[in-house]
Amino acid sequence: MRARDGWTLLLGLAALALSALGTAGCGDGRTPLVLYSPHGRDLLTLMERTYEERQPGVDVRWLDMGSQEVYDRIRSEAANPQCDVWFGGPATIFARGAAEGLLEPWEPSWAVHLPPEARDAGGRYFGLYRTPPILVYNEAALDEAEAPADWDDLLDPRWKDEIIIRDPLASGTMRTLFGMILSRSVAETGDVEAGFDWLRRLDGQTREYVQSPALLHEKIMRQEGLVTMWELTDILFQRQRGAPLGYRFATSGTPVIDDSVGVVVGGPQPEVARQFVEWIGSREALLLAAREAYRLPARVDLPADELPEWAAEALSEMTVAEVDWELVGREGRDWMARWDREIRGRSDD
User: Fold this and answer.
1) Average pLDDT of the residues in 49-68
2) Would you say the pTM of this structure is higher than 0.70?
3) Shared-domain flag, residues 239 and 173
4) C-alpha angle 290-281-283 in degrees, rounded to nearest 5
5) In terms of DSSP bridges, do strands 85-90 and 133-138 run parallel, antiparallel, or are they unpaired?
């Protein structure tokens, strides 16, 4: 069995077990609320614990998986939904789910404080956090001045077999980065061929594609590779735990992800799901996520002096790249299929 097939099987079994729990109800009389999310154990545990303290009649249950895997699972369950809230992932993936009728048209009160680009015109999903992809390096092996400063620096021959990448087919972060490269190609040349050539050269530099963020961090820390691309939140968590992971914002610009949330159509607990989404975008929950889980709020009405120091530094250092998100959302699936078919692991041939 291939590694990717094995991972898919394990994910399916885990989701099946969670679904069975969610539909069975709670033995202690609480109402189960099921979240599918790519946000990772740290944020999910924080939100679970905090929400249950405020709503003791609710039992928050979550399944952590990649952004693309969340979409695939909710789509596959559309005839018999097992999830209540789709919690996290790029707006481009949410747009696909909304177009397929997977998300309920319902607007929380805090949506009025979002910039227009962070909310769906149909009221089906809304930005919670702004997630910037960054360049990451092992700072025990490289000084900051030696590390790549921009995306194009990854193509320098010195990084041959030193780059490790999270599997783009499962990762919304990597799909966003690849989408930026390809949409930039369209803007500059009129088609995607220059962008695919860039990705082909990156593949030639890449030592390995890994199946999980945890494995990505581990391999970079063990110096099996020295450089990667990932998102700021995870790296700040790892640094907090003492990991030797340095990072830089790309000088040419960062394709900032509008990390979104929405209520799943036909979920087992629609009213409880709406109440959770109303809370998760509240001032209280967003500032908690910023302080404790390194999330940049998407709302524009939160005073800067209430944000933690790391957030102020990120906002001052980050240059937001111009990306045609509509094009990425429309063409991204076909682009990734072509990358997987024509480029992955083939650039040395």
Assistant:
1) 96
2) yes
3) yes
4) 60
5) unpaired
